[in-house]
Amino acid sequence: MHNNKCLKENPNPNPNQPLLAYHFIQALTRINLTAHTTTSTKQRSHIIKHAAYVSMAFAAGNKRTWTHAVLLHNRFPLKTRFHRLSGSRRSFIMSLSRNKKTHRHAHLLRSLVPGGHAMEFSSLLMETANYIQYLTAQVRLMQCIVEKFDMHV
Amino acid sequence: MSSRRSRDITEEEINELISKLQSLLPETRRRGAGRASASKLLKETCNYIKSLHREVDDLSDRLSGLMATMDTNSAQAEIIRSLLRS
């Protein structure tokens, strides 16, 4: 059946796709039961988005800084906020990325990856790689679900 | 590259990590053969993550709209079954 293809297309073995699906669908079921006629579509969308990041972090496990940031500190992707770097951290980063453009992009990356500001540069790159893997898997999962809903409605 | 310091992270390791990141970005965003510069790659990564965040937002909106109209139990059971079957 074609619906399996969208999950199998994920070339990377790292994100555990069934686990991702399990957590997210569980959350969706809960949302459907509790937030029914009273919540607006926009409110529910926000709740679903929240559930997507939480279930994603859950599936990724607690060995990652970004999952801690999401689950424990409630750091979600919102509109971009820029944080000021502390002095010592700034000099450390500058020493690694000598040109200003790299420094600026690294700073932007830190604001995009949950918990990014607390990491060293090399950890940031590893966390980013993992975060992207899980984000793409989550997006594919949600696309699958939307497709199936479209078929049934 | 200039002097290598005696600490855990070397320039080479950073370059390795950067290559790994580059391999994760989708094909269409990779320009030309060989490795892009670090700053270009970081910029591509940032743009990619932003677009993924936007997709999550958009899909959440659509899911929310669909959940409002669907017939709950039967659809969900079918979805769960087919997704977990893979």
From TrEMBL, chain A:
It comes from the Eukaryota. InterPro entries: bHLH_AtIBH1-like, IBH1-like, IBH1_N. It is found in: Nucleus. Its main location: nucleus. GO terms for cellular component: nucleus. GO terms for biological process: regulation of DNA-templated transcription. Residues 23-71 form the IBH1-like N-terminal domain. Keywords: Nucleus, Transcription, Transcription regulation. This is Transcription factor IBH1-like.
Automatic annotation (TrEMBL), chain B:
It comes from Dioscorea cayennensis subsp. rotundata. PROSITE patterns: BHLH (PS50888). Keywords: Growth regulation, Transcription, Transcription regulation. Belongs to the bHLH protein family. The lineage of its organism: Eukaryota, Viridiplantae, Streptophyta, Embryophyta, Tracheophyta. The keyword Transcription applies. This is Transcription factor ILI5-like. Pfam families: bHLH_ILI. GO terms for molecular function: protein dimerization activity. InterPro entries: bHLH_dom, HLH_DNA-bd_sf, PRE. GO terms for biological process: regulation of DNA-templated transcription; regulation of growth. The keyword Plastid does not apply. Residues 1-52 form the BHLH domain.
